[in-house]
Amino acid sequence: QVQLVESGGGLVQAGGSLTLSCAASGRTFSSYTMGWFRQAPGKERELQAAINWSGGSTYYADSVKGRFTISRNNARNMVYLQMNSLKPEDTAVYYCAADHRPRLGGYTVVADAYDYWGQGTQVTVSS
Q1: What integer best gives the mean pLDDT of the chain?
Q2: What DSSP string describes 41-108?
Q3: Which whole-number Å values give the CA distances from 122 to 37, 78, 125, in the listed order?
Q4: Within a 13 Å sphere around the CA of 127, how many CA atoms are in the beta-carbon half?
Q5: How far is residue 91's CA from residue 40's CA, in Å, rounded to a whole number?
Q6: How far apart are CA 53 and CA 59, in angstroms?
Q7: Partner of 54 at 20 to 30 A CA spacing, among 34, 75, 106, 112?
Q8: Can you tell me the distance from the alpha carbon of 52 to that of 57, in angstroms, rounded to the nearest whole number?
Q9: What does the pLDDT read at residue 27?
Q10: Is 74 left (phi over 0), alpha (psi -120 to 50) or beta?
Q11: 51 bridge partner residues
Q12: 79-121 pLDDT tens trace
């Protein structure tokens, strides 16, 4: 069992930066693929970034590539999402999620494949 708690959301002006953090409980955190999803009102929850257990494989959605960076610290059971050059369209609730299964390529983009979810943190980018 893994519990995930996100923090770091808030209100920021366009062009600004935020860093989201996700604290995980559980001794097996280091073996999980971790993902950051977001969900805007009226839209589906979509993967924005993922990182495999070692940090050697990462994924970014086209919309955030070059602006967001996912990282993890297995010793501290933490995963981060550094978000730069934020745009109003980045406004959403951001969720941290964990997938315990080994995946070809190191991650999956399918939300239903992730076993554990945090409660979400709101990110609002004003224009």
Answers
A1: 95
A2: TTS--EEEEEE-TTSS-EEE-TTTTTTEEEEEETTTTEEEEEE-S--GGG-EEEEEEEE-S--GGG--
A3: 12, 19, 10
A4: 2
A5: 7
A6: 13
A7: 112
A8: 5
A9: 76
A10: alpha
A11: 34, 58
A12: 999 999 999 999 999 999 999 998 888 899 999 999 999 999 9
Q: Are 43 and 89 in contact (CB under 8 A)?
A: no
Distance between CA 3 and CA 88 in Å, rounded? 30
Place of tokens 């209100």: 11
Q: HSE-up of 54 (CA within 13 Å, CB side)?
A: 6
Tokens at 23, concatenated: 């604290």
Answer for the pair 48, 60: CB distance below 8 angstroms, yes or no.
Answer: yes
Nearest Cα to 80, choosing from 48, 109, 110? 48
Residue 111: left (phi > 0), alpha (psi -120 to 50), or beta?
A: alpha
Q: State in Å, rounded, how far the first CA of the chain is from the last one.
A: 40
